Amino acid sequence: MCGRYTVTTKDTKTIADRFQVELEKALERGSGGGGGGNGGPAAKESAEDGAAAKGAKEKGKSPPGLGRFNVAPTQEILVVRSSPDPEEAAEGAREARLMRWGLVPVWAKDLKVGYRMINAKTENLTKSKAYGPLVGKFRHRCLIVADGFYEWMRAEDPKQPRQPWRFTVDGGAPFAFAGLCTRKPWEDAEDRGVDEDGYLYSATIITTTPNAVVKPVHNRMPAILPDAEAEAAWLRPDLSPEDAIAMLGPLDARRMEGAPANPALNKVGKGVAEGPELLVAPQDELAVDA
User: Fold this and answer.
1) Which of 33, 37, 83, 97 has the greatest number of C-beta atoms within 10 Å?
2) Can you tell me the distance from the alpha carbon of 190 to that of 199, in angstroms, rounded to the nearest whole number?
3) For the segment 252-284, what is each residue's pLDDT rounded down to a tens digit?
4) CA distance 96 to 21
5) Is the pLDDT of residue 55 over 60?
6) Rounded to whole angstroms, how far apart are CA atoms 196 and 190?
7) CA-closest candidate to residue 46, choices 187, 203, 147
8) Residue 206: phi, psi to the nearest 5?
């Protein structure tokens, strides 16, 4: 699975250039989520995130969706998808948007459904009531921007906590998870992922079998699109469901690295510090493990 990840850069231009999308307006339109919690009471959550985002901008801190070292489910994440116009989409036109992590299907009446839908298994996409209708439609396939992800290794002693590992691609460069997204009318405008028009936007990260780098730590990994060409193909209107699923294998292990991360990752939420210290395990723990 993929239950936490990172987007450490704060530079909107770097991400805009890498994914060929306009970011400034999208982040201004979004309600924030840069420092949001990990799923407390839904009421007022988006308002709190919006206030945090506004304060961050005024202080020169991270824009919403960027500068993140421990992105957690239910928070708002940076998503790129095709233009709604099929002709423009075929020419590569894209848009960016902040969405809630944890897909809330159109038939769902409660945000709690999203807790169970932060990941979508490649093998089950076409059989799923929630994901099957989405994978064949270009507006529901998306890129989820990241530059690393975490998985947890089980300790030999079951009484000991699991050890988080962070995995990166090409030395820490930005990349895209293959994702699925949707929207639905939503009454509570204060929930994360709800836009000014009253629609709840939500997304899930697709997972696949692990490569040789991830396998010693976990039996799943996120489906990472290998390059800009694959990302463009994933968003194209003429991509069939069969061809889409064929793209979702594990990334070439030679491009990836993994290392122990800080167990402080286990805590997320309001008042919990989030910074680069989370990316690596404390030296005293590494010494003990050695």
Assistant:
1) 33
2) 11
3) 999 999 999 999 998 887 777 789 999 999 976
4) 7
5) no
6) 10
7) 187
8) -80, 140
What is the residue type of 224?
A: I
CA 149 to chain centre: 9
pTM over 0.85: yes
Buried b (16+ CB within 10 A) or exposed e, 64-89: bbbbbbbbbbbbbbbbbbbbeeeeeb
Topology annotation, domain 4-289:
hypothetical protein yedk fold (3.90.1680)
Cα 164 from Cα 171, distance rounded (Å): 19
Neighbouring C-beta atoms of residue 251, cutoff 10 Å: 22
- Which amino acid does the sequence have at 150? Y
pLDDT tens digits along 100-141: 999 999 999 999 999 999 999 999 999 999 999 999 999 999
**How far is residue 241 CA from its own chain's centroid?**
22
Q: Which two tokens stand for residue 86?
A: 């099929």
Q: Can you tell me the distance from the alpha carbon of 25 to that of 254, in angstroms, rounded to the nearest whole number?
A: 37
In order, the DSSP letters of the chain are: ---EEEE----HHHHHHHHT---HHHHHHS---TT--SS--STTHHHHHHHHHHHHHHTT-PPTT-SEEEE-TTSEEEEEEE-SSHHHHHTT-EEEEEEEES---TT--SGGGGGG-SEEEGGGTTT-TTTHHHHT-GGGEEEEEESEEEEEEPPSSTTSPPEEEEEEETTT--EEEEEEEEEEE-S-TTSTTB-TTSEEEEEEEEEE---TTTTTT-S-EE-EE-SHHHHHHHH-TT--HHHHHHT-SPPPGGGEEEEE--GGGG--STT---SGGGGS--HHHHHHH-
> What count of other Cβ atoms lies within 10 Å of the Cβ of residue 46?
25
Nearest CA to 81 among 92, 96, 67?
96
